[in-house]
Amino acid sequence: MDEGEELIVTIGYVLGVLILAAAGWLAWRNSRIIADQRKAKGAIPAVSSYTVQVTRQSDGNESARMTPLLEAVYQEPQGSVRVSLCRVNGTISELKLDHAVQIMEHTCSEFSLKGEAVNIAPFRESVRNEEEDAALSRLEQALTFQRTQA
Fold first, then answer.
1. What is the pTM of this model?
2. What pLDDT, in 10s, does the model give residues 130-147?
3. How far apart are CA 34 and CA 103, in angstroms?
4. Dihedral angle, C-alpha 105, 107, 110, 113, nearest 10 °
């Protein structure tokens, strides 16, 4: 090898070491930023899933693994029916929020044709994030509109 080739190889090694050092420093900074964010926000919440539960008023079987977000009660000739949008705690096998809201709207629409809406009650204290809050507001508005149209 002549002097020119040795110089190019040396420059290549130096650049490689500098790139590896910069990558290491960036990875370290990124881990510090993530650690600071976790301290500020607390623990990362588990993934939530949702379900729509339809029960007769007399059933009253509340599950400890479900947190109600909105409840609509309808009076039919056969009795009261409660339709609840619930967050399912500790599992991800149920529905995504948007799909559960669509099912809740459809189910309540069917019950509003059969009977009278007695009560629509959101549980704002159970809301965990902005996505749930926005979905609850949209759903409450849609159900209230259905109620006035019936």
1. 0.63
2. 888 899 999 888 888 877
3. 37
4. -60
